[in-house]
Write a structure and sequence with these properties.
Chains A, B, C: It is found in: Cell membrane; Membrane. Chains A, B, C: The record marks 68 as: Reversibly protonated during proton transport. 3 copies of one chain form a homotrimer. Chain A has 82 residues and is mainly α. Chain A has helices spanning 2-48, 53-81. Chain A has a domain at 35-81. Helix content of chain A is 93%, strand content 0%.
């Protein structure tokens, strides 16, 4: 009976790890979609108005940094939860 | 019977952890889609009307900060729930 | 009975590993979508405004590096979780 309990505890622990692993992947999908959209639109915008390039680049970095910050927090929290 | 209860409690705890992990990933997918959409549209708007760039950037930061705030709260709550 | 326990413990261990493995794949899907979007838009933008090529390349590298940084952190954390 003790062995059964031990091994069932093992089952549950590893379902949790499955979720954490998939969650880390989803985090980067979110970050990639978000920063990718901003960066892609920024270079398109620079090509349309090259003289506004400095301002566009500043806006791109601000928005991308917001996503980057949340992403790193989420990754650290995933590690803490596991 | 006590052992069975203990191990079943363990099962549920770890299904929970699976959900927390997936939830953290979904949080960042939401934040990435949202801030990405705002940032992408903002740089497009700056290219179309460069003289309105300052106002556009302010609006972008306000909207993105609202998503960022909710995201950080959600991440902290995910950690508290686990 | 001991053999059954060993084998079931192995099953559970591998559910966790399955999640980590799929998660690593999702990480690269996210990074590929993001950096791919930025790089693709950057070369399109350069073709439209070749004289703005230097500025566009700078913006592309900044945005792609943000995704790359988060991706490497996520890959290392996946290894730590497993």
């Amino acid at each position: 009976m003790f062995e059964l309990a031990t091994l069932l505890a093992q089952i549950t622990t590893d379902y949790g790890r499955m979720g954490i692993g998939l969650g880390i992947g989803l985090i980067i999908i979110g970050a990639g979609l978000g920063i990718g959209r901003i960066g892609g639109s920024a270079v398109d915008a620079m090509a349309r108005q090259p003289e506004a390039g400095g301002r566009i680049q500043t806006a791109m970095i601000i928005a991308a940094a917001l996503i980057e910050g949340a992403t790193v927090i989420a990754l650290v929290f995933s590690l803490l939860v596991s």
